[in-house]
Design goal:
Shape: globular
CATH class: Alpha Beta
Largest sheet: 8 strands, mixed
Bound molecules: coenzyme A
Number of domains: 1
Structural class: alpha+beta
Low-confidence stretches: none
CATH superfamily: Gcn5-related N-acetyltransferase (GNAT)
Order of helices and strands: EEHHEEEHEHEE
Helix content: 25-40%
CATH topology: Aminopeptidase
Oligomer: single chain
């Protein structure tokens, strides 16, 4: 498979175009309670976007999407297939995302996370993100709406 962006441990990072959208949608729906549609995922390309997929032996296991505007960026999505969670891959993905942002001279990265998503929140905290705000009722749930925690990391 061509166009490897980077290799870290046993994961290789590829541009998302290397994989069929169906394989990425499968990861998306396994990871998120309200997964993005194909149209939303496919829309994350072009100016300012990094949509990078992590693969082991050519098989995609997760991805991240960042979007840059001027010197700021947002982490739009990050996920690791449940079969591969808890093995350090999420941390590797996020570090890769942040390194690429630094190379683009991005000064701050922002993200939103469900208040109930303790695992992702712990990952972001571990890599230095700080809680800066809360958006009331931002996310859909099966019952009442859920708050988003807004976090940011200064990169340089
Ligand atoms: C969040 C996610 C990407 C983490 O990926 P992962 O490969 O499981 O994470 P890692 O194994 O690299 O863990 C890195 C750190 O994150 C934290 N963490 C990850 N999952 C955790 C959990 N379930 N509970 C507590 N801490 C957790 C820990 O600090 C961990 O470091 P440690 O192992 O030294 O304690 C993954 O769980 C996922 O895809 N979740 C579903 C999608 C999602 O919620 N995305 C974020 C939306 S904002």
């Amino acid at each position: 498979m061509g166009n490897v962006v980077e290799t870290i441990m046993n994961i290789e990072f590829f541009p998302f175009e290397q994989f069929p959208m169906a394989a990425l949608l499968e990861i998306e729906s396994a990871c998120h309670p309200f997964p993005w549609t194909e149209a939303v995922l496919s829309g994350c390309q072009g100016q300012g976007y990094d949509f990078v997929v992590a693969a082991i032996k050519g098989k995609p296991i997760g991805y991240y999407i960042t979007h840059r505007v001027l010197d700021e960026a947002t982490l739009m999505n990050i996920c690791v297939h449940p079969n591969h969670q808890g093995k350090g891959y999420g941390g590797q993905l996020l570090q890769n995302a942040l390194e690429r942002l630094k190379r683009h001279s991005i000064t701050h990265c922002f993200l939103e996370v469900r208040a109930s998503n303790k695992g992702a929140g712990a990952l972001y905290q571990k890599l230095g993100f700080l809680l800066i705000d809360k958006r009331k009722g931002y996310y859909r749930t099966n019952g009442e709406r859920e708050d988003a925690l807004v976090m940011s990391l200064q990169l340089q």
